Q: What sequence folds into this?
């Protein structure tokens, strides 16, 4: 359930947190029928209780982000703030402030490495965040309590309007996590594909960078190293460089997911400056959604976009073999330089030298006649 009252009249922030995690909100102090002054301060008290027994669940850690402030502009409305200012959609009076929005904001915070306020859950299962400015707050459990699953992200508004129409500045939230049970992990292998166009393409090795976003797991080999079984040139905790010789496909290792959630990666090609090649400048963005079904984790959805997180979707589905990081390089053969035809050397112009030939011919005849006369004598 979520409220959609017109915020221009009087903002009606969340009256229910995340339905999927049964977040119960109760507001007990600082109640007022009038909207509090914009410079007011409030607090959020989170009490983690076991879903089955209702007992406090001590341990673990929360991170609180202020996703939006409250501003007055002929009324009261949310305005995305800080790192959330570039979130894909504004939060308006028509936005459902529900678990789905909380999950999207949590994913955005993880992808962009946004900083929040960390607070530990005490032995009484409670955590208090005080001295908060008016606004919309995202609560994410980054570390669950022992033997319990992490609470799904949820949203809290300060102030909060109760069902009786009163505004409260100090908000109590009581999410109820499930007991953590052993669950079979799920493995995913992604594929990088290299294509080449052109004639008489020379044998060439191309390099690609596969990078994780946030705390997503990296591909590992049997020895637990950040390295795939394929041609990995370099690797670190956050990225790996793969090499592909000529055209073809290579597996980007095997990624093991042991917790449900959304995981994010990017992949791009390095321009190594090989002569006569035009490189593919595409950056791929990939989200892998993992959910739990009974006692096993399964792939819920793989989304592959071309051009980054706000790019064009090129694949959506559950089959990792179809989520190809495809890069196409074109090759243009160097043009052959042709020498201009050689001009044949000209023969000597002898048209004006025929008189020596005639002279020689006359001399020859005279000599023959003289010879014949001498022989007769």
A:
């Amino acid at each position: 359930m979520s409220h959609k009252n017109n915020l221009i009249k009087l903002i009606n922030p969340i009256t229910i947190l995340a339905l999927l995690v049964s977040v119960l909100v109760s507001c007990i102090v600082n109640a007022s029928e009038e909207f509090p002054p914009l410079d007011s301060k409030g607090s959020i008290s989170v009490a983690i209780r076991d879903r089955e027994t209702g007992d406090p669940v001590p341990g673990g850690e929360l991170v609180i982000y202020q996703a939006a402030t409250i501003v007055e502009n002929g009324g009261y409305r949310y305005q995305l703030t800080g790192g959330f200012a570039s979130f894909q959609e504004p939060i308006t009076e028509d936005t459902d402030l529900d678990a789905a929005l909380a999950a999207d904001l949590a994913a955005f915070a993880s992808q962009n490495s946004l900083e929040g306020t960390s607070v530990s859950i005490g032995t009484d299962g409670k955590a208090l965040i005080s001295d908060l400015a008016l606004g919309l707050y995202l609560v994410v459990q980054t570390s669950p309590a022992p033997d319990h699953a992490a609470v799904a992200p949820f949203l809290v508004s300060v102030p909060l309007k109760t069902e009786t129409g009163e505004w409260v500045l100090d908000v109590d939230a009581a999410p109820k996590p499930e007991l953590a049970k052993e669950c079979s992990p799920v493995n995913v292998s992604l594929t990088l594909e290299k294509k080449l166009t052109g004639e008489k393409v020379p044998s060439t090795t191309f390099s690609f960078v596969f990078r994780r976003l946030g705390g997503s797991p990296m591909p590992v080999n049997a020895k637990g190293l950040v390295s795939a079984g394929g041609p990995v040139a370099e690797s670190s905790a956050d990225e790996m460089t793969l090499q592909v010789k000529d055209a073809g496909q290579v597996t980007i290792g095997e990624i093991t997911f042991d917790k449900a959630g959304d995981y994010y990666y990017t992949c791009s090609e390095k321009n190594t400056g090989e002569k006569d090649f035009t490189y593919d400048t595409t950056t791929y963005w990939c989200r892998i959604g993992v959910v739990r079904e009974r006692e096993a984790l399964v792939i819920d959805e793989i989304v592959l976009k071309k051009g980054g997180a706000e790019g064009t979707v090129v694949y959506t589905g559950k089959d990792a073999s179809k989520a190809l990081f495809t890069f196409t390089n074109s090759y243009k053969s160097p043009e052959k330089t042709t020498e201009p035809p050689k001009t044949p050397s000209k023969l000597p112009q002898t048209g004006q030298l025929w008189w020596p030939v005639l002279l020689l011919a006359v001399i020859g005849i005279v000599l023959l006649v003289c010879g014949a006369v001498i022989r007769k004598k």
The first helix runs from residue 99 to 111. Residues 19-174 form a domain with the Immunoglobulin-like fold (CATH 2.60.40.10).
